[in-house]
Records
---
Amino acid sequence: ETKMASAPDATPSPAGAPPTDDKNPGSMEDLHKKAKDVFPMFFEGYKFLVNKGLSQFFQVSHTLTLSNSMPSGYRFGATYIGAQRVISPQEAYPILLGDIDMAGNLQAHIIDAPTQNLRCKMIAQIQQSKWQGCQLSADYKGADYTASLTLANPDLIS
């Protein structure tokens, strides 16, 4: 059985480990993520999801959705979690995530940590062979603060 490193998450310290004296509140994105996880996710229909770890660093997924309330169809996903920069047992970088449907609509994420305190993320959406959206963000984690910068749909070329 292969094990795959997980995407960066704030996880409690293992049992028996001394509590850390971390005064950093984390990013706003993490705060909203924790609040969103409390609410139930309603879904009408069927969703079949198959994940397969091909190696310690690479995983593929197949999703088939059958629903009247949202678009039905097949999606293929791939995840790569590198080991070039291991920040902690829960954090290894770079992380590449991609998800594509039968019409060629793509959603891709690239997450990297160039330094111990800096996290960079790019999210791109391509629909009908055209860029629909791009988001660039960077989080700097200080001793007792986190500073974030986000650019949504930046037009850097023209």
---
Amino acid sequence: MSQLRNPDGFTIDSLIVALYESMSFLPGDEPDWERFANLFSETAIIIPSSSNKDENPDSLTVDDFVASASASLAESGQLRKGFFEEEISRRIECFGNIGSVWSTFEDRIGPGEDSLGRGINCIQVIKYRDRWWIASMIWDKEDEDQDKMIPSRYMTA
């Protein structure tokens, strides 16, 4: 792993800010995949939710997720448009060296642009080697057609 950016991972807050910053990018650019990968523990898993309720979601390594997301962004033309995932609200629960973060987000093409949708990242974190790491991350997005909207308790800090 490359050098940790100061202060990524020194606190849970800085870890989550770095997560959103690393995934967001301007038109013609791409996510900062190196920074993104350095936020995760070596054995971390990422589980993208599926819109198919009967389908078992895949558990991906960070490298597998980066490869899949990179290909998807290139194929969809999203790299030409840019992408910003902005945090709306965050709830953190901790005990000792473990924590769980419920981070509500909104996707946009760019700052100030119309919303592409909202969702929640559920992120498990662990502290070792004098910093916080993401151990796992799973998310789901709102879907009005399925009457799946974010509860109000996840819309305030």
---
Amino acid sequence: QAAREWDFCMDDAFFQASVKVRGRTPYMPAWGDGSAALTCEEAQAHWKARKAMEKAEKTTQGTEPGQLGRRTTQLNSGQALLIWVVDGLTATEGCPWTRTMQTGHLLKFLQDECVEVEQELRLVRAYDSTTR
């Protein structure tokens, strides 16, 4: 229903969620930039710093939505990519912060990310309606 109401493809939403998570976890070997996070605290610090950078970029960009992540993966769907990202984070040698969380905590973070996506969709919709 949300996809119809907001006029977007669910696969694109899955893809954008994976872009956001990968951007906030640069210490992950499979997709990171070589940053290190060996402890829960270091991983949290990376996440918070990247999230603050995203917020600052949104503030300086005004109301125009930012550039969405481009599909540069060989996985054939956004859903498959998001599953791959979550699998990497929850693997035995995955994210040190994720390893300390229980399922309920992870679901709370997922809920928070969904609220952020909804806010971003509202921004895009508002921008689109003023530029037509």
---
Amino acid sequence: KIEAHLRGHAGMSGEDQEDLEFNPFYRLLQTKFLSVYEDAQRDCHLVCVPKTSSLTGLNISRQFVDMHLLQPSILLRDLYLSVARGVEMKWQLVGRHLKTTDDSPVKLCVEVLSEELAYNKALQQFKIFIVSSPLDPEYKPQQTRAMPTAIQPMETAFECRQFLTSFDSTETLSELDSRVSTFYQHYLVVEVEPLLRDTAAKLKQMTQQTFSKFLQLNKRSVRLLDRRAKDAAWLSIQTYLLSAVHRKVFPAVCAVHKEEDQRFRDQCRSLRGCLTPQSLCVHPDYRCAYPITISRLERLEECGCPLEKLYCLLHAMDDMNRDVQNQFTHSLRHGAPEPWTSDDLVAVLAFIIVDSSSGCFLSDLYYMENFHWPCSEADRLSYVLVTFRAVVEFIKRQNHLSPKTKQQEVLNTDPLPAETISPTVLQTLNSLDKLEEPHTHYNTHGPPPRVQGTKPTEPSNTLGPFLAQLLESDDTVTSAHFYDQP
């Protein structure tokens, strides 16, 4: 709704910079006080936005907002008049400080932390100042710990509980514990695929009800005006719930996918020793054993909720870079490895999964797909999940090789003829739409396949365009902000 374009002012220190999109005062300007903000834009007023940490415990009313909208003087430069009713205050910009003039009834001085240039609908300029404290004469700093402007991602159920207890959550968690107890005593998790989805829907409904209660109890919390804090609360509540019911739900998931897990283990066992980075023609920089990554992936079964499992996969992908860098260091090679291409990424992950000893990898994937509800489809964890599912389908498409063929594959150092090489990542992903299994339809147009010894056609430090298409077209990756839905 706001057509103002922002551009940061140069010269301000990086540590003073604050993201306006997550400032509670600025967000209220764009929502509750939108008409007031549009009038200020039209008249090219100076908009003063107090930094987030200074707003703790404050009630942001219409009068409070008006005090932070200053009308530029027609006659004097750097002189501004307050537009708030009943407030006769004049402000003057002196260097990096905004001070009241001598004839003002109250003496105040605030520091200008950063400045933004903005444009209204008529393409006229106006300024936005991020200031150190409110321009309210009655403002008193809170004797509490400053509210952090950044929210660290939570990776475990313990961290999620710690985040919730930093709010007024005693009643919320007590009510959720009661629901979990009822779920354990009276709810039967039937080991049938359609009914597992009913279980997921039931748990999601419990999460939504608890989240609504949490927001109601904390409706005066300035922290929750930050969308990131609200998203973190949503993920924390679902993780708290799923970690509590994990021992009841996850065994049923494994039971439903027992035969599929066994077939996948047999496939991996048949490919072990022949599905290697060399045979898959990945870039020479990535041809190593990946011990750190394999060790990480083997700890997947120890994770007690979908969020922990997703972060295990995420860290496994990070560990791949560590393994490659260690190989560079030990081989005394100079420079840095080539950037990952999507083809090489999927191929190396296939080798890692085949070489690890995960007992129920497909059950883990199903558990993460159906019992985790991210806040946004652009979430990095959802991207990781789609990547690993593509890797699984790639492994399923590989040919079974006999032991003699395996021995020749390991000993042969010459490039294999194109017609004898196992299907490439691109060929596999292009043919996934022919499979009859659910959630395995991938339409992709990635880089062309290449034979061993050639350089990547389009080096990239991303997962490639085809994985982005997987994320966009995937029907199991949830839409943005589930907790906004009824």
